Amino acid sequence: MEEYPSKLLGKAIDQLNTLPGVGKRTALRLALFLLRQSKAEVTDFGEAIIKLRTDINYCKQCYNISDEEICGICSNPKRIDEQICVVEDIRDVMAIENTAQFRGKYHVLGGIISPMDGIGPSDLRIEELIQRLERDSVEEVILALSTTMEGDTTNYYLYKQLKDKNVKVSTLAQGIASGDELEFADELTLGRSIINRIPYESTFAK
Known about the structure:
Layout: H1 7-16, H2 24-36, H3 39-54, E1 57-58, E2 65-66, E3 83-87, H4 90-99, E4 105-108, H5 126-135, E5 140-143, H6 149-162, E6 168-171, H7 187-195, E7 198-199
Parallel strand pairs: 3-4, 3-5, 5-6
Antiparallel strand pairs: 1-2, 6-7
């Protein structure tokens, strides 16, 4: 166990060390950086993190992160109600929005099926998606999950749940490399994949 000249410094380092990709040395560097800032700056930093956890909302319609009960996308009258793009999380919403090629709405699953991680269909917002189809005038569901094995498994499960719901089920066109996460795709490639989306059935092996 490393010794620090202050227990408060050590506690700050331990907390920073819990962040993804932050080792002990990086945590020490960040803690010392914060220590050099003014009290007002550090207070603003701390309050922003606390408010991120305590005050942020999840949209009641699509489960995107929002400052309000209904997010800006769902409340925008210029968005197309008939199209729902199904994504894993907020990072994928941001990636697709950055392409400026999709004018419909979203449904954030909150993950993908991954038995190795103990995540099954009941852990995702699949039932909420089905309820939206039954409640709203949805004509097309676009499956926009990562092209990983877990993403493909989730896509297929969703297709099986949706194929009898009188709704078109499509998926992103070829362009996103197999195994890629959506958030890392360049905007041009992702934008073209959305525009040139294909019926999900056409992805089945002949």
